[in-house]
Write a structure and sequence with these properties.
Strand content: 25-35%
Distance between the termini: 48 Å
Mean pLDDT: 81
Structural class: alpha/beta
Number of helices: 3
Order of helices and strands: HEEEEEHEEHEEEE
Low-confidence stretches: 175-184
Strand order of the largest sheet: 3-9-10
Helix content: 10-25%
């Protein structure tokens, strides 16, 4: 419901990179499904496709939990074309800051990828960048027995699975994009 007024891609920018940057301005993630179709993923709750459980169907797992992308501030700078309603510093020096959770001084300064038409738009972009970076990053490579889930369907890359592994310190749903390997 918020169309972009004007857009421009830098020479040499591929379509995926261009669209992914636009999606971030609207608080969405650009992805693909198991068939290669584009997905525009906004805030949603998706049910788990199946459960990966230690000592039941997990043969081995490598799980890495990091939080290296925490910053003290997320600062976005932007510009827009001047018109009769917005000109001078209001058009040329747009800035938004969202405070992060890092205890040390470690700001992330970024320039908006496209013209920003309102202060609310650049503020939303900074808030989304915080949301994207603030969480812990969990990478799980899990090996299972066989090709099929409990319901008889194939495991899907990019699906959401409930992972229950006390040794891996996980009991969570929504780990989208878990790499599921088949062991034959």
């Amino acid at each position: 419901n918020r169309p972009f007024k004007r857009l421009r891609a830098e020479p040499g920018t591929n379509v995926w990179t261009f669209l992914e940057a636009l999606a971030r301005f609207r608080g969405a993630v650009l992805g693909s499904d198991h068939k290669g179709n584009f997905l525009l993923i906004g805030k949603h709750a998706e049910a788990s496709l199946d459960t990966l459980q230690e000592s039941k169907n997990i043969l081995k797992a490598q799980i890495v939990i990091t939080n290296e992308h925490k910053y003290s501030d997320f600062i976005f700078l932007g510009q827009t074309a001047a018109d009769s309603s917005q000109y001078g510093p209001a058009a040329a020096h747009q800035k938004a800051t969202v405070h992060g959770t890092a205890k040390r001084y470690s700001p992330l300064l970024q320039v908006a990828e496209h013209p920003v038409w309102t202060q609310a738009e650049i503020q939303a972009r900074a808030a989304y960048e915080k949301q994207w970076n603030e969480g812990d990053e969990i990478t799980a490579n899990i090996t299972v027995q066989g090709w099929l889930m409990a319901n008889g369907a194939l495991w899907k890359a990019g699906g959401q699975y409930l992972v229950k592994t006390p040794m891996g310190m996980l009991n969570a749903i929504g780990l989208q994009g878990i790499g599921v390997h088949r062991f034959i």
